[in-house]
Write a structure and sequence with these properties.
Blueprint: E1 9-15, E2 18-24, E3 32-36, H1 47-53, E4 58-62, H2 80-94, E5 99-104, H3 106-117, E6 122-128, H4 135-142, H5 146-161, H6 171-181, H7 187-197, E7 198-200, E8 206-208, H8 224-231, E9 238-243, H9 251-254, E10 263-268, H10 275-278, H11 280-291
Parallel strand pairs: 3-4, 3-5, 5-6, 6-9, 9-10
Antiparallel strand pairs: 1-2, 2-4, 7-8
Helix pairs in contact: 2-3, 6-7
Amino acid sequence: MAIDIPGPTSHSYFSQRLRLHYVDWGNADAPPLLLVHGGRDHCRNWDWVAEALREDWHIIAPDLRGHGDSQWMIGGSYGLSDYVYDIAQLLHQTKHQPITIIGHSLGGAISLQYTALYPETVRKLVAIEGLGWPPDQVKERENKQPEERITEWVDFTRGISGRVARRYPSIEEAFQRMQEANPHLTPDQARHLTVHGVNQNEDGTYSWKYDNYTRIRAPFGFPESERQKLWQRITCPTLLVRGTESWASDPEVDGRAQHFQNAQFANFEGAGHWVHHDKLNEFMATVKEFLAD
């Protein structure tokens, strides 16, 4: 489905001295809705969702630090708490509270943690595969010895430091890579995501906008038991979304559902990790019903 309506306006704000970017779809008198993208993605990945909801909502969608048109982090890492701080700053500065949130993947994890910290500020929450890796993989990682985690992190970070962003001779070749990465995408979807997801280099080639350092996972973070305590603080109606063809496990089967006070669950057949792309019409029908007062 092509986007043939006027697009959003671009804005900047500051968080931890970084200039961060977000788009605003207008309709300022409507209730605010925040859309938070996933890792190595960008805010325009939400354009189809925003088009479907913009008449009833005042939609803002940020580029996370190191993504899209936001600044890259220099001399530090991309930790979940830093992303959460950025979102807290955006909502504090724009005064969009109480807020309704839809987040995907990393954006879903950020949205869950923000909502757990400030439950009184969130009306409703939709998290698309935002619970992270399946519990068995999380347990395997947590069982590693500290020295093993740290040395793996050092080695991986050193490898990333020597990694050069891939350069595509044309947008067409970047578009083909986008289609390979998610075969569920229609050509129109893949082209739209590519056009908004690349920068042109000085030599005329194209590279993805995200910082390769966003791939680095910190050697330590909240243990799963602590994350579960945070989920228990979420009081608003919550919709946890999953694609049945994704790597994400079903929270009603793996036990994570029990840590939510007021959650609904939706599994989409024939969808992978990007449910809001793979099954757009079905996803929008479910979300509109969930968001309706």
